[in-house]
Amino acid sequence: MKTLKIAIQKSGRLNEKSVELLKNCGLNFENYKSSLISPVSNFPLEILFLRDDDIPEYVQDGIADLGIVGENVIQETEVIVSYLQKLGFGKCSLKLAVPNNSDIVNLTDLNNRSIATTYPVILGKFLQKNGINADIRTISGSVEISPGLGLSDAICDLVSTGGTLKSNGLKPFGDVMSSEAVLIGRKGIENEILVQELIQRIQSVLRAKETKYVVLNAPKENLTDILKLLPGVKSPSVVSLAEEGWVAVHTVIPERDFWDRISQLKQAGAQGIVVMPIEKIIL
Ligand code: ATP
Ligand code: MG
């Protein structure tokens, strides 16, 4: 059988979550920091550990069949690949930012000003779309210090919490794009059975991550109210308890719905609420 290759970041913000996701898919491999390639012992797959900037081109050119990388890197490298699945981690935004005391307040103020960035392609398209004529200064890192050094009037950089901007006396000013890690594939690879199987495994892990298995006890007479509060993957199971007039309700629900409803459930008489993690949900 043909062996697939998937490229993930060797070290950096996406490495740990990418490895965790693949391991949660039941894939067995050694995560040696020193090796470039790691075979999976229980699936026809090899893992390539690369700099994230190289991943889109490796996938486009077929050196790797699949890759996990930030959408920002894909857009910047302008490759032609298939987007197979958003992965829900590595979330960040590419933002414009200016010094706190800057006279730049809206986009048009950027005309004839300079903007430092490591994302010239994405920024260039954004400025063009908005009819702004600014000078893009491409630098390879530490973008946030460039206004302080007098290198630029503004910056365009990735932000997740905004802490780095703040500590450099900058304020966010406009969103250029939002990004998260995605699974990409060489064009057409999505038709291969092995790839479909891998995507299904990834989806079952992602689904499980956002859902919880909930068990609670309730007086039988309140059951209708409680069931209304628990929209599950399917309808909940209701089991009689040894104590007369009481039932246990078992269900699988999105975690965010659950936290919103906990006080309503208690009001409806739910007791002994147990919330458990789920490993996989296969539909
Ligand atoms: P490499 O050595 O592989 O080239 P890098 O230094 O270019 O790594 P990282 O800083 O590890 O990249 O970021 C990898 C990806 O993580 C980014 O491309 C982006 O998609 C995502 N990310 C999430 N939050 C942030 C953030 N606050 N700053 C930068 N990137 C972030
Ligand atoms: Mg990089």
UniProtKB/TrEMBL annotation:
Pathway: Amino-acid biosynthesis; L-histidine biosynthesis; L-histidine from 5-phospho-alpha-D-ribose 1-diphosphate: step 1/9. Residues 208-280 form the Histidine biosynthesis HisG C-terminal domain. The keyword Translocase does not apply. It catalyses: 1-(5-phospho-beta-D-ribosyl)-ATP + diphosphate = 5-phospho-alpha-D-ribose 1-diphosphate + ATP. It is found in: Cytoplasm. Belongs to the ATP phosphoribosyltransferase family. Long subfamily. Catalyzes the condensation of ATP and 5-phosphoribose 1-diphosphate to form N'-(5'-phosphoribosyl)-ATP (PR-ATP). Has a crucial role in the pathway because the rate of histidine biosynthesis seems to be controlled primarily by regulation of HisG enzymatic activity. This is ATP phosphoribosyltransferase. The gene is hisG.
